[in-house]
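Q:
Got a chain?
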Amino acid sequence: MGAARAAIVAQVTPVLEALDVRVEPYARNSTVDEPTVMVRLDRVVKARPWRTYEAALLVLVPQLVPGNADDELEALLEDVLHALDGGRVPWTAASRAVFEDLQVPGYEVALSVPLTITQE
C-alpha cells in the first residue's frame, strides 16, 4: 500500500472500526452490505520536495429500502468528517453521489495528502 493511501487508512480506521464501519483501502466493485468507506487515489500533483496526492473517501451505506438510507448516510458522513478533522489528512469538500456500479447512495469526500518525496 502506498504512503498516501496508508496515511488515510491509518487516520480513519481506528475511529470508524469502533463505529462498526468497514474501511476498504481500495475502491472496488463489491457488495455494500454494511456501512463502508473506500479509499480512492485520483491524482498526484508534482511539487518539490513533495507530491500532493488528491484522493477521495467513498462513504457508502447499503440501501435496503429505497429512501431510508439518507439518515444513516448523513450520520456516517459526520463520523468520517470527525475522524478527518482530528488527524493529519485534511479534507476539502464532501459531495453527494450515487455510485452506479454499486447501486448505493454515498458521499465522496475530497482529500489532499502532501508527502515528501524520498528516493528508495
Q: What stands out?
A: The mean pLDDT is 84. The first helix runs from residue 3 to 18. The helical segments are 3-18, 69-85.
